[in-house]
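User: I'm preparing a small set of examples for a lab meeting where we compare how different chains pack in three dimensions. I only have the primary sequence for this one, and I'd like the structure in token form so I can line it up with the others. Please keep the answer compact; I'll paste it straight into my notes.
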Amino acid sequence: MSEILSPEGLRCDGRRPHEMRKLKCEVGIAQDADGSAIVEQGYTKVLVTVYGPRECENRAKRTNDRAIISCSYNKATFSSGVRMRKMVTDKKSTEVSVMIQNTFEAAILLEKFPKSQIDIFVQVLQSDGGERCVSINATTLALINAGIPMKDYVCACAATVYQDTALLDINHLEEFSRGPLFMLAVMPKSEQIVQLQLDNRLHNDHLDKVVKQTIQGCKDIQVLLDRKIKERTVEAAAAYDIKPRV
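Assistant: Understood. Below is the structure token output for the 246-residue chain.
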């Protein structure tokens, strides 16, 4: 697997080990949704739409003191060149849906919306590694666009270790290099971890460095997401001739 990291210390896409992929994002692109966002990190592209808070349709699941979250995660069949059996795809989609739901249950101020539900729909349009992280980042933007209050941004980043070198914000080739896959979602201001996943073993000697780099990656992502929200706020205010505080 020499193509993962060159002798010069460059990754297959030309980045250095600690460098993030280029991130682009837009919000408010789905007119029928209460909130929406699309995020691209490298060649991974995810669209998220949010509906709610609205009255909970399922009385059996309705809670009197807080809102409930429902999440649906799907990968478009054309998102990557790899074909997977439907059963495997459905199982993974269910697992990621639950993961995203649990992540945002820790961040959204659900107690402000009793007897309500918030529906999150995640669609992976292009897949080149890090889909779970990009989905979380896009969901954060979509929730903010919907005006749903949260304790803080939730930002996610993943890393792996190859030949004792930590690689940040991994692409598809790096994700499937059989190394450890460490994914972290945090609320950057407090550095509170709201989601942590580790696929394969990570040697204890690498743990501290990987955690620190991944948290810094999440903070870097938060800066970019916040910049987009502020730009959107200025644009919306200008349409109504209002001078916002940003």
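A couple of notes for your slides: The CA atoms of residues 154 and 187 lie 5 Å apart. The helical segments are 86-105, 131-145, 172-175, 204-239.

User: Perfect, thanks.
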